Amino acid sequence: xxxxxxxxxxxxxxxxxxxxxxxxxxxxxxxxxxxxxxxxxxxxxxxxxxxxxxxxxxxxxxxxxxxxxxxxxxxxxxxxxxxxxxxxxxxxxxxxxxxxxxxxxxxxxxxxxxxxxxxxxxxxxxxxxxxxxxxxxxxxxxxxxxxxxxxxxxxxxxxxxxxxxxxxxxxxxxxxxxxxxxxxxxxxxxxxxxxxxxxxxxxxxxxxxxxxxxxxxxxxxxxxxxxxxxxxxxxxxxxxxxxxxxxxxxxxxxxxxxxxxxxxxxxxxxxxxxxxxxxxxxxxxxxxxxxxxxxxxxxxxxxxxxx
Amino acid sequence: xxxxxxxxxxxxxxxxxxxxxxxxxxxxxxxxxxxxxxxxxxxxxxxxxxxxxxxxxxxxxxxxxxxxxxxxxxxxxxxxxxxxxxxxxxxxxxxxxxxxxxxxxxxxxxxxxxxxxxxxxxxxxxxxxxxxxxxxxxxxxxxxxxxxxxxxxxxxxxxxxxxxxxxxxxxxxxxxxxxxxxxxxxxxxxxxxxxxxxxxxxxxxxxxxxxxxxxxxxxxxxxxxxxxxxxxxxxxxxxxxxxxxxxxxxxxxxxxxxxxxxxxxxxxxxxxxxxxxxxxxxxxxxxxxxxxxxxxxxxxxxxxxxxxxxxxxxxxxxxxxxxxxxxxxxxxxxxxxxxxxxxxxxxxxxxxxx
Lengths: 307, 354
Ligand SMILES: Nc1ncnc2c1ncn2[C@@H]1O[C@H](COP(=O)(O)OP(=O)(O)OP(=O)(O)O)[C@@H](O)[C@H]1O
Ligand SMILES: [Mg+2]
What we know:
CATH topology of the largest domain in chain B: Rossmann fold
CATH topology of chain A: MetI-like fold
Radius of gyration of chain B: 24 Å
Largest interface: A-B, 23 and 25 residues
Number of strands of chain B: 21
Structural class of chain A: mainly alpha
Number of helices of chain A: 12
CATH superfamily of the largest domain in chain B: P-loop containing nucleotide triphosphate hydrolases
Number of helices of chain B: 8
Largest sheet of chain B: 6 strands, mixed
Helix content of chain B: 10-25%
Order of helices and strands of chain B: EEEHEEEHHHEHEHEEHHEEEEEEEEEEE
Oligomer: heterodimer
CATH architecture of the largest domain in chain B: 3-Layer(aba) Sandwich
Shape of chain B: elongated
Distance between the termini of chain B: 52 Å
Radius of gyration of chain A: 23 Å
Helix content of chain A: over 70%
Bound molecules: adenosine-5'-triphosphate, magnesium ion
CATH superfamily of chain A: MetI-like
Strand content of chain B: 25-35%
Largest sheet of chain A: 2 strands, antiparallel
Strand content of chain A: under 5%
């Protein structure tokens, strides 16, 4: 929590130095963590990069080296570009909406619970259990038969067909993805807000009458470390962790549905058995995420105040 | 610049806890008022009600000729200096100073001029482009002061602004605050629990006890005529000795010594300042004080002793020779009498001797 709260510097305690007699011992302690990283990250990445240069025989008898052909195919494909654009729009929408709504709710909650810490714990614990449940509830909203959202849309003459109509499906995807991520953002924003010292807020009260302006010029800048952290988390979420939501909505449905790049990687690799193409796509995705992260750290973090 | 009227102000917190019980203070334009009292007596609460940071439960606060009960803090024309400075951590010193002015749509040139002037007065010119975290505690305190003075408000409100500084810096800053306030002539309310700070800064002192005013007056007036045992023990260091005595037939009796005194009868509490007590001359009537321990302060020495079951502290010059039991003379003109039950001061006079 320290890393995202507004003033890590103040809270940081002097580093505790532990001396090991045996030089091997620290590595031993690190081993489980390293093993997890190697098994679940490096090894698959290397595998992916490797297989992206090959075309797998459809029947599983060996593979042929094709160089960059898989990449060229992917990037040249119109379908790929269409899905890439949808992914971009989807990611921007989900990230922006879930951050904005999470922040809005946190600000409202913060005003209510200031000082009442029992209330705060209660509220936070409720929200901490919520995301998986929220995901499920969100899905149910759009159920063709019992979904209340579908029924409500029907009152306004909107015949919602999630899984059949491209726009409706996209709408539901964004809605449920945002819905699921809000609690998470809410908790972090709320604790970020609570970390803004009371006296600084009060000084701002005396210096600035306008509440919105006060929020923009004092609270928000102090919240930026939290927001930056959440921005990265939310982009990653929108790109990758929405897989389950998309899967539920488009699985076993006609082909004309919006999907994201990650889902296409899965589709091509495991449904279409095009392991090489799918690997190439996932490598592209990896590069994009890597680039995004670099950009964020280089350009955004510089403008952020770490108390 | 303006006068401030605090009239029967009451604060009851949401839980039903009343922190301030009907306090009234009339503050003249340009006056430096210090609110002093033990922790939890409601000093901050009172100050924050004047600032507008805490809603007023009852009574009225007027700044100048405006009733401010329902005004936003930003509209009350006050500036506040907080104990932990409360600087905006993400702004430079310059932006910190300019922030309040910018929000009030002050012209740019004017802001610059005022910031420059404040920076000069407080000698913080070379830090203007630093962030607060790159400043020492004393420098932050100056910036906090600067943020208050650039606004040229009707009143300064200080809530223990010096208590996070070391002892030496506190003394310097104290003098500086006083000088600055004199020069600007801005009405000020200053909260502290440090009675020395209170004595040295105040035009008038307000001693609070459990949400009520115990006494209002000039520092020396309060020092010489404390209105109650509470004030007597709170103002002055070391604290005034308070001992049980008896008044009978125009005489006050304590420790076998009697002094003629009119205006009291029965058991009373006798107040004796350590610095008013001296060793008795040979043959003079004296209280025989058994010495328990001695504190050497350099310039003087505090001698703590017991007479029967009552403790007494006297301040002596370091070169006075001491034995186990010393005779202490009562200062006839410097006796303070308080009601033994209510603790209120009794105005008693020593008859004039020929
Ligand atoms: N928000 C609050 N809710 C309920 N009671 C409060 C609240 N704030 C303060 N109090 C109570 O009001 C009383 C006065 O508090 P206040 O902060 O004014 O004391 P103070 O004189 O400034 O003390 P200190 O010297 O320790 O700062 C205390 O008993 C305190 O417990
Ligand atoms: Mg206080």
